[in-house]
Amino acid sequence: GRDERADREHACLMSLAHRLPVPEVVDRDPAVPLLIVRDAPGVHGQDMIDAGRAAEVLRLLGAVLVSLQRVPTGAVPGLAGTGPVIVHGDFGPQNVLVGGDRITALVDWEFAHIGQPVEDLAWAEWIVRMHHPGAADALPELLDASRLGLTWSARQRAMVARCEDLMRLATAAGSPDAVALWRDRLRATEGWNE
After folding, report:
1. In a 10 Å sphere around its CB, with 0-12 CB exposed, 13-18 middle and 19+ buried, how is residue 70 labelled?
2. Can you give the pTM of this predicted structure?
3. Most exposed: 51, 53, 57, 119, by fewest CB within 10 Å?
4. If we measure between CA atoms, which residue out of 124, 94, 126 comes closest to residue 190?
5. Rounded to whole angstroms, how far apart are CA atoms 191 and 110?
6. Residue 97: strand, helix, or coil
7. pLDDT, tens digit, 9 for 90 and up, residues 127-147
């Protein structure tokens, strides 16, 4: 539900403020629910990819993923799930701002949970393959910087599982257009080769 996702995002932003580049929470209205955060400097990661700077963005994503996966799982109270790491849940260039030579903000924590290291890496790769296929040749920057050494089959399985999860959410929400979209994306993902 919307309230649960807002509570999760608030908990992540408050708990991770001194560990990761997350926006500062200025105010919160749980009745709406609404979070107000301070503007962060930087350029949207997808805009940078579109401007031909994919290698830079993906290298920085891999580095911030290393930092995220070093945060103890108990650092954010109330995160559900099992696994060895905190998972952002929608990790990728679509949810970062980049300033200079660093990520200045990692945003949109509503799907955060405790899970497996492959999840965020695979989703960042999925975003590039699905929305920026011309930048796929820069994916080694992400993979190398993440230091995870995960195989293609492990990453693809994680991508497929996430697409299936999102298709289930669309089904539960009663959105036939979204179900059809995620069914098509799932089929495309299943057909990818490294």
Report:
1. exposed
2. 0.94
3. 51
4. 126
5. 29
6. strand
7. 999 999 999 999 999 999 999
Cβ partners under 8 Å of residue 71, min gap 6: 16, 19, 20, 85, 86
| Token pair for 113 | 């949970």
**Structure tokens, 89:** 């849940």
Q: How far apart are CA 114 and CA 42, in angstroms?
A: 28
CA distance 186 to 48: 26
Report how far residue 14's alpha carbon sits from residue 22's, in angstroms, rounded to the nearest whole number.
9
E strand or H helix at 26: strand 25-29
Beta bridge partners of residue 96, listed in sequence order:
106
Q: Kindly give the pairing relationship between strand 43-44 and strand 34-37.
A: unpaired
Helix boundaries (H) for the chain: 2-16, 45-50, 54-70, 118-131, 139-146, 152-172, 176-191
Specify the 3-state DSSP secondary structure of 71. Answer: coil
Can you tell me the distance from the alpha carbon of 176 to that of 183, in angstroms, rounded to the nearest whole number? 10
**C-alpha gyration radius of the chain:** 16
Cα–Cα distance measured from residue 43 to residue 29, given in angstroms and rounded to the nearest whole number: 27
What is the distance between the alpha carbons of residues 179 and 167, in angstroms, rounded to a whole number? 5
- Helix, strand or coil, per DSSP, at residue 74: helix
pLDDT digits (tens, 9 = 90+) for 148-183: 999 999 999 999 999 999 999 999 999 999 999 999
